[in-house]
């Protein structure tokens, strides 16, 4: 299955094909035949909350209705797999945070009333708002102005299965250059808000690694605000966890900003790995590039990728592209991939999107096997080559090696 599109500048274009299912609290699959009229995907009726322009944002949980599984943002998410993160009191202990690396980075634990909390984003769904309500405090990590070659790791370790909330704020002060790794390990049931404040002229790379143990449920809203002439690169790598739902977003607050969003995920039997992205072009002359790649194997492995790009009428001179590529390694999997491009001005440099999902390329396998490489090795080489484009974006040798080893373990499981 392949879906690609490139926008030829014009007024009020909207590209993207809606999928056709949703999940109730009990895990019931909603087909177009039993979906409510307001959400009749596939029938040609409009979907009220499908546009990213004007979406509800609020710090107050009460402003978000209880979830039913019919909502646009949750129709691929079986609510019963969320561990109560969308409805329960999140009173468990949050995962611990250990910060290592550069000495110039400052680390603070502050009250949720601190002025810096909420400076990069406001909750956009009930999961995020519930985490906001129950977060006991916030961890703020700051890269000082004009700092160079900063590299720090936040080791985020879960140690329980009681539903919890967590809040993290990463600040890159003006003209700083740094890399922050969010290394999620252990076992947890946690709803998390992470903010990235990238100030004028700063360059921030964030690597969010979901290497959880198998019973973890992790929901993470990761919102970035990119100021004038700033650059933000976000790399999401998801292997671990039973249910992981990441919602990275990037909003431009000044001209000349650049955003790159990369992702790599590998789903095994029974895993639900979901990534929902949003790039909000509300300022002229900014650039964004999105590329996510995923692999699936095993019964009931399920991946979801939704990429939303909104180019507002004020965002003249925008240059944007997004793509999602998926490789299916066995039967019994499900992959949902939806790129959405919403354009409100024709005065842009370009915008496009693409989505592909398929099995091994038989020609590639034949080419390798014709040169004396056995089929098992040939398949590994194809998968490595497919995913390595994202691994190489990390540019931290020890972390790249760790991910390569993880991919090898995943492939070994496929062959067993």
TrEMBL record:
InterPro entries: Fe-S_cluster_assembly_SufBD, SUF_FeS_clus_asmbl_SufBD_core, SUF_FeS_clus_asmbl_SufBD_sf, SUF_FeS_clus_asmbl_SufD. Belongs to the iron-sulfur cluster assembly SufBD family. This is Fe-S cluster assembly protein SufD. Transmembrane segments: none annotated. It holds the Pfam family SUFBD_core. Residues 158-386 form the SUF system FeS cluster assembly SufBD core domain. Residues 27-53 are annotated as: Disordered. GO terms for biological process: iron-sulfur cluster assembly.
């Amino acid at each position: 299955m392949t879906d690609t599109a490139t926008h030829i500048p014009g007024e009020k274009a909207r590209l993207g094909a809606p999928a056709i299912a949703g999940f109730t609290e009990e895990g019931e699959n909603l087909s177009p035949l039993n979906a409510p009229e307001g959400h009749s995907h596939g029938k040609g009726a409009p979907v009220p909350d499908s546009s990213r322009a004007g979406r509800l944002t609020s710090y107050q949980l009460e402003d978000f209705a209880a979830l039913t599984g019919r909502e646009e943002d949750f129709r691929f998410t079986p609510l019963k797999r969320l561990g109560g993160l969308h409805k329960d009191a999140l009173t468990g202990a949050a995962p611990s945070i250990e910060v290592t690396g550069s000495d110039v980075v400052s680390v603070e634990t502050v009250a949720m009333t601190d002025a810096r909390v909420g400076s990069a984003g406001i909750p956009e769904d009930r999961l995020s708002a519930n985490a906001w309500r129950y977060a006991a405090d916030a961890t703020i990590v700051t890269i000082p102005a004009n700092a160079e070659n900063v590299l720090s790791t936040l080791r985020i370790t879960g140690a329980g299965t009681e539903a919890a909330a967590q809040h993290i704020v990463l600040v890159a002060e003006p003209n700083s250059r740094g890399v922050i790794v969010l290394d999620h390990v252990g076992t947890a049931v946690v709803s998390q808000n992470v903010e990235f404040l990238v100030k004028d002229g700063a360059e921030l790379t964030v690597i969010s690694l979901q290497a959880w143990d198998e019973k973890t449920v992790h929901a993470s809203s990761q919102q970035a605000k990119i100021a004038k002439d700033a650059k933000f690169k976000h790399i999401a790598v998801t292997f671990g966890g039973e249910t992981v739902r990441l919602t990275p977003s990037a909003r431009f607050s000044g001209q000349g900003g650049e955003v790159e969003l990369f992702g790599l995920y590998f789903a095994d039997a029974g895993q639900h790995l979901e990534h929902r992205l949003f790039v909000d072009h509300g300022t002229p002359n900014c650039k964004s590039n999105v590329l996510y790649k995923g692999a699936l194997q095993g019964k009931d492995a399920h991946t979801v990728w939704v990429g939303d790009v909104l180019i507002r009428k004020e965002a003249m001179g925008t240059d944007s592209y997004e793509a999602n590529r998926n490789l299916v390694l066995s039967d019994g999997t499900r992959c949902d991939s939806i790129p959405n491009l919403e354009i409100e001005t024709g005065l842009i440099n370009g915008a496009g999107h693409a989505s592909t999902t398929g099995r091994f390329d038989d020609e590639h396998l034949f080419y390798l096997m014709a040169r004396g490489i056995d089929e098992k090795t040939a398949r590994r080489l194809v998968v490595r080559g497919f995913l390595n484009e994202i691994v190489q974006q990390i540019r931290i040798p020890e972390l790249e090696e760790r991910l390569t080893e993880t991919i090898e373990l995943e492939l070994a499981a496929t062959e067993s």
